[in-house]
Amino acid sequence: MQRSIATVSLSGTLPEKLEAIAAAGFDGVEIFENDLLYYDGSPREIRQRCADLGLDITLFQPFRDFEGCRRDRLARNLDRAERKFDLMQELGTDLVLVCSNVAADALGDKQILVDDLGLLAERAGARNLRIGYEALAWGRHVNQWQQVWDIVREANHPALGMILDSFHTYSIKGDPSGIADVPGEKIFFVQMADAPILAMDVLEWSRHFRCFPGQGEFDLPAFLAPILKAGYRGPLSLEIFNDGFRAAPPRANAADGLRSLLYLEEKTRERLLQTAPAVAAEPDLLFAPPAADTYDGVEFLEFAVDDASGAKLGGWLEGLGFAKVGQHRSKNVSLLRQGDINLILNAEPYSFAHNFFESHGPSLCATAVRVKDSARALARAVGYHGQPYRGLVGPNERELAAVRAPDGSLIYLVDQGADGQTIYDTDFSLSGGVADNGLGLTRIDHMAMALPADGLDTWVLFYKSLLDFKADDEVVLPDPYGLVKSRALRSQCSSIRLPLNISENRNTAISHALSHYRGSGVHHIAFDCEDIFTAVKKAKEAGVALLDIPLNYYDDLAARFDFDDEFLSELAYYNVLYDRDANGGELFHVYTEPFEDRFFFEVIQRRNGYAGYGAANVAVRLAAMAKARSGGLRHAKL
Amino acid sequence: MQRSIATVSLSGTLPEKLEAIAAAGFDGVEIFENDLLYYDGSPREIRQRCADLGLDITLFQPFRDFEGCRRDRLARNLDRAERKFDLMQELGTDLVLVCSNVAADALGDKQILVDDLGLLAERAGARNLRIGYEALAWGRHVNQWQQVWDIVREANHPALGMILDSFHTYSIKGDPSGIADVPGEKIFFVQMADAPILAMDVLEWSRHFRCFPGQGEFDLPAFLAPILKAGYRGPLSLEIFNDGFRAAPPRANAADGLRSLLYLEEKTRERLLQTAPAVAAEPDLLFAPPAADTYDGVEFLEFAVDDASGAKLGGWLEGLGFAKVGQHRSKNVSLLRQGDINLILNAEPYSFAHNFFESHGPSLCATAVRVKDSARALARAVGYHGQPYRGLVGPNERELAAVRAPDGSLIYLVDQGADGQTIYDTDFSLSGGVADNGLGLTRIDHMAMALPADGLDTWVLFYKSLLDFKADDEVVLPDPYGLVKSRALRSQCSSIRLPLNISENRNTAISHALSHYRGSGVHHIAFDCEDIFTAVKKAKEAGVALLDIPLNYYDDLAARFDFDDEFLSELAYYNVLYDRDANGGELFHVYTEPFEDRFFFEVIQRRNGYAGYGAANVAVRLAAMAKARSGGLRHAKL
């Protein structure tokens, strides 16, 4: 399909928007009238610029409050339309969006609406132009696509057709399935927008909170599928009113937009495979990337360090029971292991990790995930405009498929390899031993990331499309200095989990972490363990600095749960936090203090299927961290 | 009344909050449980700290989901309450807030609720503690104060009373007037919160969008008046859940909170004067500042400059038809005049203006407003905790009453003076002449300010309380790089108007202005004129750099209004913007380019009672300014 986007979806001046749209790979653009109005150049100039950039102007929009206007204004409104037709011809586009009248004094009599739109279509048709009529969810009399179709059918003019917009249908709980029965040639244009489900005024919701497909909660394949079944083969266009997008860098945002259309196409194609296989199989209609891989957890995490921070981080990890089990054959890279957890500390100069260290300081520079077929996984990622990465590989070393995550770190896609050898076998000299002081840490439970406020949607879409992850609902958490939002991504099988944390305030722990990273970065890494008390006891003995939790927290646990005093004292002594879900699932977890004020580690034990991340305890953790940061003295315990 | 605030209303750790609350002048504090929970110190320590700061702990809150809980949980819930009673006794407070049960499985049978609360009150009473029962707007069965009263009356226990919260009543369109008939001694506590009227989920609204009294849209005096009529004389407390407040500097925010209570008291007192004069007159009950003055417009504006920028600004103003008519007798200060407009350029070293210039660069450092009685106006401002200012006054010079605005600039309160002499007569050597090249500018129409996103509420409250201004509704405007919000303040008679503009995005024109000011500052100053075309013609001849408006804007005017081509050409040639309101009121206005990239001037003509600020044209102005800033070439016109 032709992929298009409305200029209103992006930030900047009209030329900045057009360049971003073309660079992202769109081949069509809707010109939002105000963008033209405020531009200091002629419509012909815009037409030429679009042509130079390879962009069709798919639509000019909007033309408001026309049909059913007060009778004494009709002639004047037709004159107004002719002025806009002049403009369209200068722009070189033949389609204008007429949105349903919202005026308080608009007339609702169907015959008047049919006649008015017929009249307008006649004027447009005489100039080889077309009218697309769209129901606004807050239209005075017309707010559903079924009404639009009714009017368009009655008017029965070749220059009059429908424009469909997913937001206007879903925001008022409309049902798109009947669109499949409309003749495809009477659908002139299709606009797609997603949105979070919000209980608020529809107009406000529409103007400020729309987002790209896949970033919100609407079932958009269920909207597009009947449109394609009806035979529509015109452009698929994004029209997103979003406060954040209005301020976001337009190139990166347009790239997200294109990716969101690809994702929508893939998901729609999957839907159509069951109900209309012929449409699904139509060549060049819908994006069909290689199927997503399945994952079997995290193979390893790689930290970018220099010699000094590498030694320090290594010391911390030894305190947490990790043992150095390998040294890279050709590079200044070491391997630490415990249970199924592999951690790589990379201090190699002239490497990707070194560049990452230079920009971000000690940080997580790569995450390796286990896949069945790395070539296929990489092909999928690249199909979704992911940026592949090839590093320097020494003789006999294994080359890993990799794609860049939104923060510039790498995601390695690691399969078993034809020879049955692991990356550790090929690239490392292994010592084979595992330390005695292991804490019983078994696997990586999750990697939490700190993102800037406008980064969340980008990450969600990246992981949903390239890696087929799911996104949990957003949770809002109090920090002593502002609110923090968290949304967790996870692989379909939940073996890889990434809670993403953002804050809109300058002073929160998240913002603090961001400023230390100079960009997005790892916030904390959680390790599963066999037994929390064994683990924390050993960690304490090894001198690991655990985050000190106020005693008042344990007084409240005592009020909430039926614990005996001895058990409570043990929790408090070891700074172990506790949560219980509605089904009796239990979480025990403990935090280290931050490593160089950048990120920290968590040791957790889940019991009885507890699936969350201890949101109930985030506030106490954040307050404890704020206290630790401010250098406050800790009071002695017990 | 005792003035109190809940710790949840402010940002920071518990000690930071308590210090800010005491510094603002509150004498009571509600301890929000989580703040204590996350604090690394004992409840006794908090008790002592509050005592040291002169704060009573007026309430401990909240205790949730108690009454009507599942029968098998009642005993456990009573145990939980006893734990919290222990805590209260350590804190030294006798009142706990029990909010109505929200659990899906909560029982609604009234007798059960009466019995449960009676049981709890019995336990509390035995320890000399009291239970305040409050209806949450989203309570499962109990969500109105009338239900709470019904239950409290039936339970009839001396340790059980009502807690009233304005948000929970108004958010579900409840009517507080009947509270006047409740026995005052059964009202244990009163929480006040304002909010903007938002069409959204009540819980979300409550948790994120509450604000201080006077900053929102609720009629709070109508809530407080019947409570006082009922005989309640306990604390008046603020409980504000607000995302911005959670991140705002706590001291400044607490000061706003106290001011909001004073404002609420004054407005309630005015209401009671009519309906219950004895209550209104009760000594020490309600804040009673000197009545607000009336205003007769702006007497003068004072700009902080140095010699270089003063000469440049003087040149700009001469181009706009101002003539230098006076020189200060003892200071490096000059007076420019046109029509009723007096502008003062202050380049005096070692002065307030100089300090302001050092911090902000060339900027508006003082606004003088005409009042009937400056002593009374100042007393009112100081009563509202405004910061008075006294400058250096030379011999025979007049001393002006002044108070600091939220941006640190001054507001002079100027009356006629006993001797009938003006400040110009006493302080300046006047040349008497008015230049021939006057543009026919008559008066100051408005002064628009650029504020950081979190500054709006502070300004609104400042002007509403100290100066008795009104606040118009908020308007949202598109900037090419993000959205801008605008809310206009004006004196009761509309002779002084201050549109306030904020942006949450880093890249907008507002943010640009802010970064140039290093703080809030003047954004533009608009002068009324007799005839826009005469004014703009002369300005053009005088070489004033007018902001260039794209021709496309005039094509759209042509489509929207029935102008002849010649008139449109004239508008376009002179870059005059046009707007028309629903009643036929018309606005003509033109902008200069920004002075040193900081602020700009507007010349406007209102016809037929146009009362707005040309919101319809803000987007084209912002786009034109962005273009001018980015140094784009302007296309030749006509």
From TrEMBL, chains A, B:
InterPro entries named among the record's database cross-references: 4OHPhenylPyrv_dOase_C (IPR041735), 4OHPhenylPyrv_dOase_N (IPR041736), DSD (IPR043700), Glyas_Bleomycin-R_OHBP_Dase (IPR029068), Glyas_Fos-R_dOase_dom (IPR004360), IolE/XylAMocC-like (IPR050312), QuiC (IPR050009), VOC_core (IPR037523)
UniProt-recorded name of the protein: 3-dehydroshikimate dehydratase
GO MF annotations, alphabetized: 3-dehydroshikimate dehydratase activity; dioxygenase activity; metal ion binding
Record's catalysed reaction(s): 3-dehydroshikimate = 3,4-dihydroxybenzoate + H2O
Domain annotation VOC: ranges: 297-416, 443-593
EC number(s) reported in the record: 4.2.1.118
The keyword Metal-binding appears for this protein: yes
Family annotation (Pfam families): AP_endonuc_2 (PF01261), Glyoxalase (PF00903), Glyoxalase_5 (PF14696)
Organism for this UniProt entry: Pseudomonas putida (Arthrobacter siderocapsulatus)
